[in-house]
Design a protein that fits this description.
It is a single chain. The protein is mainly β. About 10% of the residues lie in helices and about 35% in strands. The protein has eight helices and 49 strands. The strands form twelve sheets. The protein has an eight-stranded parallel beta sheet, covered by helices on one side. Strand 16 and strand 17 form a beta hairpin.
């Protein structure tokens, strides 16, 4: 069946998907499969059957799917090369099927299926009955299964996944500068609840900077059946497992409704509350119980933090303290599998941004991203600008309605994350549309009065409907702020794409361009800060990027390995956090057009000494002439005639006259060491858990040899698989693959064989995972 026939048969019933999507709380993630008062959540990520082609009759309960592939969610509809492929190859309609039985405890309750993300449009069937279609790849959706369940026998959930770039669905309609890939790429679960249940919880801290903070807890109660009995809500504030406050309120009786009713419980006069800050990520949770007399009907919880975040006329304030924002934009895609990476890998990106690149903010360009990523941002102290799906194009009225719905779903899913400080409610770099953007702003402010809105544009003459003027400015010098609350959200990026194999002049200039922008941002408090384009190289359409389906715009490559510009971001942290010394070059006398004439080093030291073969050739202070406003300016050494001969370079870093760091680069140009560097050594044997394994060829001092391009042969023993090429050819002296656990506990042993630098190996422990419903 072709796509037009498929669309004609399935229709476009957005209304079939729940409009107040359920989001799993942190506590539920830790105890999936266990009961909690009247509810339990059952993950169903394993034991799916998958067909790359649409199959007539494939929704029927008794359809024979034994010939389909057995897959685990997150799943990409097609594995691809890491670059140089045709994106049309993943644009097709596929079919997923999952058989399951409902536990006896579910009888008499409501059963929902919750999808966290499917690319791009999903038509869901249960036991041959079509439940509806949801259009959109980045926001969660749910269907009520109850009326069509067989509580005594086997059930079959079937999902038609349309991964084509449909013009009726954001971000599509024209052409976007990134790829969306396909498949059920985020997790799925069954949620079993009573007919009156807690649909969502929104915690709104108040007066957090006073001696008596409080919190309003909005409890959204869903009455799928009329409620005449007296009900109450009990809310406990938890610091870890310790209850520190409690309050309750009555729930008004209600007729049956498809919309949840909000009841607010006030936690007043709290004492000993610790604020959420970038340095001290104090996280609390609320536990909400829905009671009928002494009986607990339902129970749920949410994690949050006490903090005050606002953009002001003199910059961004967190808890009353001005913080200059310094960050990068992130695409959530990865080599080979697109967006289909599990929680561990999503969290790793947040760790790279916060701990390796020392960013204090990330923008989720250009769509809501994984809850795992956002959970890690909460835990690491990485602020977030989260925005709705889109890139330049605005569609018709039906398209706009979907976009407004994306605002609702994004905010309802993520409104308890203390890391999120700004809702992006405008299509990235789109033209003005007064009525449309009046609606998106109104929805955001109505749902969440505690946060400001922004809207990413590329021209200052744009109508300003949001609270913060968020602006992509790729020029230099930057335009001066034209509104009191002003945040730069993209720069450098496509104006200076840089590969890790480029010559030293380009790598150095790429670094300096990021430094120049941040220096200007530091010069004026009206700039709240800047979010550079971008963190990681990413896949794109053939009309963009370098022609091989890659935009080389990142300060790291697509494998998350740093380019020299990454060293600039890292160097902007306080030395008390980490002492940083990062050369923005590789050490080769003739790779520049006029010989090695300029050495740029990014460091938070206050003085550097340079040696060649242990002979002191120069001492240097930060370049305050070129970078007058940066707290930690780069060092720029004009080499000139400083060479007495070519040899090993050593750079020593000093703080207040004391040497605190040293780094050496070999002058020999010999590939000396082969390194194998796993991010993790322990994985869950759930069929999805994965970790990155980095390869590097270095000199004798550990500096990457950028022209090493050897093919690394890989051997994997045990219940796992390699996500990546085998053999894997290094790019710029480095690269990575991912190891994915299968479903059997045990040990994995990875051997990586370099053609002449020998073999390295790593072992991984695969621990048992909680069983899923069969």
């Amino acid at each position: 069946m072709d796509r037009r026939v498929f669309l004609k048969k399935t229709g476009t019933l957005l209304a079939g998907a729940a409009l107040s999507p359920y989001a799993l709380s942190e506590s539920e993630q830790q105890s999936q499969g266990s009961t909690s008062a009247g509810r339990f959540v059952l993950p169903i990520n394993r034991n799916w059957r998958y067909s790359r082609t649409f199959v007539e009759g494939g929704h029927a309960k008794n359809f024979d799917d034994s010939g389909f592939d057995r897959v685990v969610i997150p799943h990409t509809n097609l594995r691809l090369p890491w670059h140089g492929f045709d994106e049309k190859t993943y644009e097709f309609v596929s079919l997923y099927r999952r058989r399951f039985k409902i536990p006896p405890d579910a009888r008499g309750k409501r059963v929902f299926v919750d999808f966290e993300g499917v690319m791009t449009a999903s038509t869901v069937w249960l036991n041959g009955t079509r439940l509806g279609e949801y259009k959109g790849g980045y926001t969660p959706f749910s269907f009520d299964l109850t009326a069509h369940l067989d509580f005594d026998g086997e059930n079959v959930l079937a999902v038609d996944v349309d991964s084509t770039e449909r013009s009726d669905t954001p971000p599509f309609g024209y052409e976007i500068d990134y790829l969306t890939f396909g498949g059920i790429y985020r997790e799925i679960s069954l949620r079993v609840v009573p007919s009156t249940f807690i649909d969502n919880i929104f915690v709104r801290p108040r007066d957090v900077l006073t001696s008596s903070p409080s919190a309003d807890v909005d409890c959204f109660i869903q009455h799928l059946e009329a409620s005449k009995d007296a009900l109450s809500i009990e809310v406990e504030l938890l610091d870890g497992d310790r209850a520190v406050a409690k309050a309750s309120a009555r729930v008004p009786t209600s007729a049956a409704s498809n919309e949840p009713a909000a009841s607010t419980v006030h936690l007043e006069h709290l004492s000993g509350i610790k604020l959420w800050t970038l340095e001290q990520r104090n996280l609390y949770s609320v536990r909400v119980r829905l009671r009928q007399g002494s009986q607990v009907l339902d129970e749920d919880s949410r994690r949050f933090g006490f903090r005050q975040a606002q953009f002001t006329d003199h910059g961004f304030e967190l808890n009353g303290k001005i913080i200059k924002l310094r960050g990068l934009d992130r695409h959530q895609t990865f080599p080979w599998v697109g967006q289909a990476m599990p929680g561990r890998v999503q969290r790793r990106d947040a760790q790279i941004l916060r701990n390796n690149l020392k960013c204090n903010i990330v923008r989720t360009s250009h769509y809501p991203q994984s809850r795992h990523f956002l959970d890690a941002c909460d835990e690491l102290g990485l602020l977030v600008l989260e925005e709705i799906p889109g890139w330049q194009h605005i569609g018709d009225e039906a398209w706009k309605q979907l976009s407004v719905d994306n605002v609702r779903r994004m905010i309802r899913r993520d409104w308890n994350h203390p890391s999120i400080i700004l809702w992006g409610v405008r299509i990235n770099e789109s033209k003005d549309d007064h009525d449309f953007y009046t609606r998106t702003n109104a929805v955001a402010h109505q749902l969440d009065p505690t946060r400001q809105t922004g809207g990413i544009r590329y021209f200052q003459e744009s109508e300003f409907l949001e609270d913060v003027f968020t602006m992509n400015d790729f020029g230099f010098p930057l335009k001066p702020p034209n509104h009191p609350r002003y945040l730069n959200t993209e720069f450098v990026g496509h104006t200076y794409p840089t590969k890790s194999i480029d010559q030293v002049e380009r790598l150095t200039e790429h670094t300096l361009r990021h430094a120049r922008i941040h220096d200007q941002l530091a010069s004026n408090p009206q700039y709240a800060g800047g979010i550079g384009w971008c963190a990681f190289d990413y896949n794109t359409h053939g009309n963009f990027g370098s022609g091989d389906r890659i935009c080389y715009h990142g300060v790291t490559d697509i494998f998350r390995e740093p380019k020299p510009a990454a060293g600039f971001y890292k160097s902007q942290c306080d030395p008390a956090e980490e002492i940083v010394l990062e050369p923005a070059f590789h050490w080769a006398r003739g790779d520049a057009s006029v010989g090695f004439s300029k050495a740029v080093v990014c460091s938070n030291c206050d003085h550097l000494k340079f040696y060649i073969d242990d002979k002191l050739i120069a001492e240097l202070d930060p370049d305050r002439k070129q970078f007058a406003h940066l707290r930690y300016a780069p060092f720029v050494l004009e080499m000139g005639e400083l060479f007495h001969k070519w040899g090993d370079l050593k750079i020593e870093g000093y703080l207040e006259g004391k040497q605190v760091i040293s780094k050496s680069l070999s002058g020999k140009g010999v590939d000396t060491k082969f390194l194998l560097l796993p991010d993790d050594r322990e994985l869950r044997a759930d069929g999805a858990d994965s970790t990155r394994v980095v390869f590097r060829v270095t000199d004798e001092f550990g500096a990457v040899q950028p022209f090493a391009n050897d093919a690394i042969k890989l051997e994997l023993e045990g219940p796992g698989e390699i996500i990546g090429d085998n053999p894997f050819s290094l790019i710029g002296g480095t690269g990575a693959i991912w190891i994915r656990a299968q479903e059997k506990p045990g040990k994995l042993r990875l051997k990586a064989i370099h053609p002449y630098l020998g073999t390295q190996q790593a072992e991984f422990d695969l621990i048992a995972s909680i069983a899923e419903v069969a």
